[in-house]
Amino acid sequence: MKGIKELEKKKVPVIAVDEQELRSHVSEVVRQSVEETLNGLLDAEAEALCQAKRYERNAQRASTRAGYYGR
């Protein structure tokens, strides 16, 4: 039977971590988070400026939020 000291000498990695893959994944998660945050801020600012939500129709407003106008 092997002793604890002998087993401690033979440390075998239980989990292998690919640092490059981890960094890439973290970078992508951060990028997505920043993108969602910025898009949310831009949508909120557009709603405030237009006084309408996305795709909202209002008879009192001549313009539409999406910038579409009849030709």
Write a structural description.
- The chain is built from two helices and no strands.
- It has 71 residues and is mostly helical.
- The protein has a domain of 41 residues.
- The mean pLDDT is 80.
Task: Give structural attributes.
71 residues; 2 helices; rod-shaped
Distance linking N and C termini: 88 Å
Which percent range fits the helix content?
40-55%
Q: How many strands, what sense, and barrel or not for the largest sheet? A: none
Tell me the fraction of residues in β-strands, as a range.
under 5%
Q: What's the number of helices?
A: 2
Element order: H for helix, E for strand: HH
Q: Stretches where pLDDT falls below 50 for ≥5 residues?
A: none
**How would you state the average pLDDT, rounded?**
80
Q: Report the count of strand segments.
A: 0
Short description:
With 71 residues, the chain is mainly alpha-helical. It has 2 helices and no strands. It is rod-shaped, with a radius of gyration of 28 Å.
Blueprint of the fold:
Blueprint: H1 4-9, H2 19-50
